[in-house]
Amino acid sequence: MTDNLSSRPTQPNKRIETLDILRGFAIFGIFMVNVEIMNCVFMNQDAFGAQWTGTVDKLAVRIKQLIFYNKFFPIFSLLFGIGISIQIRNIRSKGISPSFFYRRMFALFIFGVAHILFLWSGDVIHLYAVLGVLTFALVRLSSKRLFWLALLLLIFPFYNQLFEWLLSVTGYTPESYLSAYSATDIVDTIRGGSYIDGIKLRIQEYKSNVTVLFVFLMPIALAMFVLGLAIGKKDWLYEISSKVNQIKKSVLLIALVSNLYRVFFLFFLWDLDIWKDPFWREVFIYLMQICDTLMGLFYVWVIAYLCQYKRWINLFIPLKAVGKMALTNYLLQSFIGLIIFSSLGFEKYETFSPYQTLLIALIVFVFQIIISTLWLQYFKYGPMEWLWRCISYWKILPFKK
């Protein structure tokens, strides 16, 4: 591809500031949840968490449940969908070949696979790459149809049954892949095993978590991708202030209703007899997932609304640098987790309580704010963003400012 205007990437100074702030915010919330899983693998969470009965730890758990759990993955997914809409706009306006987008998603998929193998099994960006290609195929749909499709994907209640059918047809048994590891084996492997042992465990852990990935995370991600594409097609990104004010009453009402249900779910429902019924328990959990997603969207609205005001946007500015380097910071969090918890570093796996993991997330994110701000004083992009762009445009792009 020739080095002319049509083949140049979007320049950093043309980015939409609110989106970078939201990306930084999402990176923080995602690590607040991920660090807990890094501290104890998903399959052992209940047994490990039961030992922390102190007041401070109980408070930390409630904070995570009310503010963080299942709220930030939808935000990150929505922003990725919006990013796809921006890329499509650039492809059309600059005459770039669609191969640019497919190359971009292929590179992201490879990054995700490498993330699983070498850092942490809880990767989602390989899933984003696959869903990104699917979302790109929907670009011809009108904004109205995309909105309805996003709603349908979000509320469609039969993913569990569909996935269970696929498992029965294929004979795939996720629970079998970690059956060779006892809880003690996992601790010993992560704390004291070799790096190769860690890779082997991460592969098995990933294969055992496909139910979480494809039943819980994938439908939400795809719904948010489609919603982000619809928002981009409606050009709302360039009139954010007017749009957030137009939907103010509706958003506040939805947030009120969803939060009332979330409080009922977390503090009262588990003590009722109806919770013991398997059918109704599944219904209540499903409604909770929807409410958590709506809460994540409410966070997006709140930040977009506050960014209209100078005093608030100045407060959010530190998030901007992290958001500009979202991919780098996402992978950096996993690298830091590897150093903290595994035999490659401090061997602290399954030693931190809920409030301690909360503090770790805060400290790491402050570090990321500082390092991202310093990095962007000298470079145009984060290192992974630069590599991703070079692969996408299939040429070496300027790096230093």
TrEMBL record:
Transmembrane intervals: 21-44, 67-88, 100-118, 124-141, 146-167, 210-231, 251-272, 284-306, 327-346, 358-379
Domain DUF418, chain residue ranges per copy: 232-395
Assigned keywords, A-Z: Membrane, Transmembrane, Transmembrane helix
PANTHER family assigned to the protein according to its UniProt record, in alphabetical order: HYPOTHETICAL MEMBRANE SPANNING PROTEIN (PTHR30590:SF3), INNER MEMBRANE PROTEIN (PTHR30590)
Protein's name according to its UniProt entry: DUF418 domain-containing protein
UniProt organism field: Dokdonia sinensis
